Amino acid sequence: MAELARRGRPPRITRDDIAAAVLEVGFAQLTFAAVRERLSVGESTLYRHAPDRDELVRIGLDRALAEVSWPKLEGPWRPMLESYGHAAWRTLAKYPGSATEVARGIIPASMVTLFDSVCAALVAAGFTPEHAVLAGDLVFDLATDNRRGVEQLDALVPGTGPKREQLSGHWPEQPFAGHSAVRESVRAVILAEPFAWFSTKLQVVLSGIESSLGPAARV
Asked: For the whole model, what pTM was predicted?
């Protein structure tokens, strides 16, 4: 009976416990030791649920994505895809370090399901399956790469780039005529509000999708 009682005991921690601890620690500072300390468990207990740090990242990302109120997959394809690009960017921005993790290929199952759903909605809107996947990949890649750049430029991830204010002031002398206006534009981009610059780039990508991949492009 004692043996049965031991077998029936619930685990000391659950996946939800781990996910909450990961988000509390933060992706940028994520270590096994930090999560164990947060949960007050031993190394072997945590290893039973997550054999390595990458799995901790996946668990945390699954929780982060589940907490998002994603836009509805309906209506005209362009505003729908734009809204998903915005939502993806803002989600990654909410959790510093998450874009760097996704960019190195740590993709949780929920992110794959989300991407599949968006692409299926594009097919329903008239895209071919290949064009739907390419369009979705362009938008989600843009959101991830842009946020990763922000994380590194603002040193949100330990050991990465300088502050944007410092970068904007370190320019070599420019001997060529007509380059001063370009320099000022580049400096303005570096100092711009990150989401506004992402939104501008997204419009260019969406226009390219519309002209080369969208349903009207095949007519």
From this structure: 0.85
| pLDDT by 10s per residue, the chain, length 219 | 444 444 555 558 999 999 999 999 999 999 999 999 999 999 899 999 999 999 999 999 999 999 999 999 999 999 999 999 999 999 999 999 999 999 999 999 999 999 999 999 999 999 999 999 999 999 999 999 999 999 988 877 776 656 655 555 555 666 566 677 777 777 777 777 899 999 999 999 999 999 999 998 765
What CATH fold (topology level) applies to the domain 2-63? Arc Repressor Mutant, subunit A (1.10.10)
> Which residue pairs, CB below 8 angstroms and at least 24 apart, start in 194-197?
194/93, 194/146, 194/147, 194/150, 195/89, 195/90, 195/93, 197/146
| Domain limits, the chain | 2-63, 70-218
What CATH fold (topology level) applies to the domain 70-218? Tetracycline Repressor; domain 2 (1.10.357)
